[in-house]
Amino acid sequence: MFFIVSKMLAFLLVPFNWIILLFVTFLIVKNKKIKKRLVVAMAVIFVVFSNPFLYKKAVYAWQINEPTITKGRQYEAGIVLGGMTMFDKNDKGYLNERSDRFTETLKLYHLGIIKKIVVSGGSGLLTGKEPPEANFLQQQFIANKVNPADIIVENKSRSTYENAVFSKQKLDSLNLKGPYVLVTSATHLRRSIKVFNKAGMPVVVYPSSFDVIDDKNSWSDFIWPNLKYMADWTAIIKEMVGILAYSVSGKA
């Protein structure tokens, strides 16, 4: 149920959709005072969420920007979270813009920092079917010279909470001890750390797939709006709301 509700509420986490809802309300209401307030609200949302400077500052502050692994230490396992693939109509898989999760995990393995790789991810679709992401990624790791015996596949999870719970079951069954190296997008790590710790999974983190490399800005960032950032804000808002929802539900 939690998974279904989260998918249904995703529409409300998009700033551009807030403007649409306010505009529809503007067309419906007759009161001039309310109409004026709606126009102001739409303008504020547009200015704030299309501003590159505000976006970069907020995201850089939100991201976990540095790994917390101990130099020279080898870890029993690294856990890489799904969300880096897409499938076509023939169920052929491809790595997407989050593929840095894959390459960073591969690097940790070949450098000997992690002994095994836990690939965690099923299908995140609310309706319809597609192959489990972890199965596709397993084949990609094997194709990149990872020993098949060193890959642990968790292909049932549909959320960060299930990533943690199901990965713990796999690692406990193999008697592998933490802390484990958790690899996911830099913006996703704050929520992931809380969820994994709550599930009894000690982790150190290795951020990847950065949305903002640094918080430097050009002069144009202060002036020109960019509609791209209205869409990009959605991911950060999702993380903030996700932490709140998981905390309220006892999952973080």
| Straight-line N-to-C gap | 17 Å
What structural class do you assign from the helix and strand content?
A: alpha/beta
Order of helices and strands: HHHHEEEHEHEHEHEHH
Please tally the helical runs, counting DSSP H or I stretches of 4 or more residues. 10
Query: What's the main sheet like?
Result: 5 strands, parallel
Mean pLDDT: 91
The number of E-state strands comes to 7
3D shape: elongated
- Share of residues in helices: 40-55%
Pick out the low-confidence regions: none
Placed side by side, the strands forming the largest sheet appear as 5-4-1-6-7
If you compute it from the alpha carbons, what radius of gyration comes out, rounded to the nearest whole angstrom? 20 Å
Beta fraction of the residues? Answer: 5-15%
Q: What's this entry about, in short?
A:
Helices cover about 50% and strands about 15% of the residues.
Describe this structure in words.
It is a single chain. By secondary structure, the protein is an alpha/beta fold. The protein contains 10 helices and 7 strands. The chain has helices at residues 2-8, 15-28, 32-49, 52-62, 100-110, 133-143, 160-173, 189-198, 219-223, 228-248; strands at 75-81, 85-87, 93-95, 114-120, 151-154, 180-185, 203-208. The protein is elongated and about 70 Å long. The chain starts with a helix and ends with a helix.
